[in-house]
TrEMBL record:
Keyword annotations of the record: DNA-binding, Transcription, Transcription regulation
One annotated GO molecular function: transcription cis-regulatory region binding
Organism of origin: Geodermatophilus sabuli
Domain HTH tetR-type stretches: 7-67
Origin superkingdom: Bacteria
InterPro entries: Homeodomain-like_sf (IPR009057), HTH-type_TetR-like_transc_reg (IPR050109), HTH_TetR (IPR001647)
Protein known as: TetR/AcrR family transcriptional regulator
DNA-binding residue intervals: 30-49
Any Pfam family hit: TetR_N
């Protein structure tokens, strides 16, 4: 007689797997470790998921990156229009909070998975948005500054989402992070626009308001 699979056990395995993937990364996580975290035997995990790849696909759906990109683009467009708060900000934040550990994987633990390109794509997407707001292409030095800033953004968000004790703490930490990040980004972009207009290519200084951008 075939064993009946229980939704509660499946959910427990998926929760344990997502936490392991977010904490240690896909490559460093074994099915035995997931089983231990779920409080069951490895053989039981394989009754629900034929492989680690199948388990990953269940907890990080294939459409998750595209959904995240759409919300991110909408949020950045709102910021470009001077709307730091509003529906776009709320929708992206809710997505991060609803999919906390899956977003951690997308932003910082994607190596060896079908979403391996997501961390670099996140940074590249934000850099391209920033470049489009400039009157001329940035110099190589200024573009490298943008990459550094947005890579730090990626890492900070992933850290907050992975380490926060609960949804409300994550929300509070992200709000505090943005209160620091957004003014710094405003200062950085003002300096880069000025450099692009005068064609000097000179690097912004702390006096231009860059100090809080990272």
């Amino acid at each position: 007689m075939a064993q009946v699979l229980k939704p509660a056990v499946r959910a427990r395995i998926e929760t344990a797997a997502l936490r392991c993937f977010a904490d240690r990364g896909y490559g460093r996580t074994s099915m035995a470790e997931i089983a231990a975290a779920a409080g069951t035997a490895p053989a039981n995990v394989y009754r629900y998921f034929a492989s680690k790849e199948a388990l990953f696909a269940a907890v990080v759906p294939a459409d998750l990156p595209a959904r995240h990109d759409r919300l991110l683009d909408t949020r950045v467009a709102a910021l470009a229009e001077g709307r730091a708060h509003g529906p776009a900000a709320a929708e992206l934040l809710d997505f991060w909070l609803d999919q906390r550990l899956a977003v951690v994987v997308l932003l910082d633990r994607a190596e060896g998975t079908p979403v391996a390109g997501c961390p670099d794509a996140f940074v590249r997407r934000l850099v391209e948005h920033a470049e489009r707001s400039l009157p001329a292409p940035p110099s190589a030095v200024h573009r490298e500054v943008l990459v550094l800033v947005f890579d730090n953004t990626r890492r900070a968000l992933a850290h907050i989402l992975r380490t926060a004790e609960d949804r409300e703490q994550a929300r509070a930490m992200i709000a505090a992070f943005w209160s620091y990040q957004l003014p710094g980004l405003d200062g950085l972009m003002a300096a880069l626009r000025a450099a692009a207009r005068d064609g000097s290519g000179s690097s912004p200084t702390a006096a231009d308001g860059v100090g809080g951008a990272t």
